[in-house]
Amino acid sequence: MTDTKTKILDLAESLTQTKGFNGFSYIDLANGIGIKTSSIHYYFKTKDDLAAALVERIHENHTEGFQAMEAGHDSADARLKAVIAYFQNYIADQKFCLCGMMAAELQSVSPRVAKLVQAYFRDFQTWLKRQFEHAGKEDADRLALGFLSGLEGSLLLGRLNGDPDVIPHALQDYITT
CATH for 48-174? Predict the structure, then answer.
């Protein structure tokens, strides 16, 4: 990936996580990076192309992160705690989950982007289900859905109140140890 393309994606990700995807334009990106809007159009012909690239990138990054959590933590509880800590950093940075933000703006994104957001959450929920199965929990599907819903909701409340500790408090019943 070129440096310019990476800079565009990095800034667009940050702006999406702080303002929402509809809260910025190519002009904002161009001004933030110090390039012309035509340079952004070179990499992303439409804002829809940019949205798709953002969701694909975060999906890939989180998938790699979850794999690293599996390799770096011996227990499902430790992996779930690592997920909580990761998302707490969003609040510390006054950000929100990119795909959560896209889901909130679902009515204004294309069907292509909506499917990518759905795939992200489906894969995240599947990974969570596997953690609960490894922990020997009954009804891992329900627990994964509850954890993911609680995570996204506590991100909202934590961001609203500037309190990252909302997340572990909201999800503590999902952790055994």
Answer: 1.10.357.10
